[in-house]
Design brief:
With 123 residues, the chain is an all-alpha fold. Helix content is 76%, strand content 0%.
């Protein structure tokens, strides 16, 4: 979502809440896909490690030097970058919702913590 803050500010309340829910849904779906892919990569690395022969250092080096795992790791890093860009969109829409005084159910940031949680954890 590459909508400017000015365009979001001009939306009606219903459209703004719909945009917030849509971008939030996209964020959750992509985060799930990224986490699934990351776990799959770790599983494949562990499987390759246990199926290899040699000492621990040799097996670890063989897994780390694998081109296949390198490509998959790069794909996970790209997914993480896209997810972080989407997270900024979620936070932007949530900020506009709060500034306009619209109730979106709960005030939740993209990473799932409520606004007051950071202060409560430090106390």
């Amino acid at each position: 979502m590459t909508v400017s803050a000015e365009a979001l500010w001009a939306l009606s309340e219903v459209e703004l809440l719909a945009a917030w829910h849509d971008i939030r849904r996209q964020y959750v779906e992509r985060k799930f896909a990224r986490d699934t892919e990351r776990a799959r990569l770790e599983w494949l690395k562990a499987k390759a490690f246990t199926n290899s022969t040699g000492g621990v250092t040799e097996r670890r080096n063989a897994v780390e030097a694998s081109e296949e795992f390198g490509r998959k790791g790069h794909q996970v890093r790209e997914m993480t970058r896209d997810l972080e860009l989407l997270e900024t969109d979620v936070d932007l829409v949530a900020m506009i919702v709060r500034l306009r005084g619209i109730s979106a159910g709960r005030d939740v940031k993209a990473h799932g913590t409520r606004d007051g949680d950071e202060a409560e954890d430090g106390a």
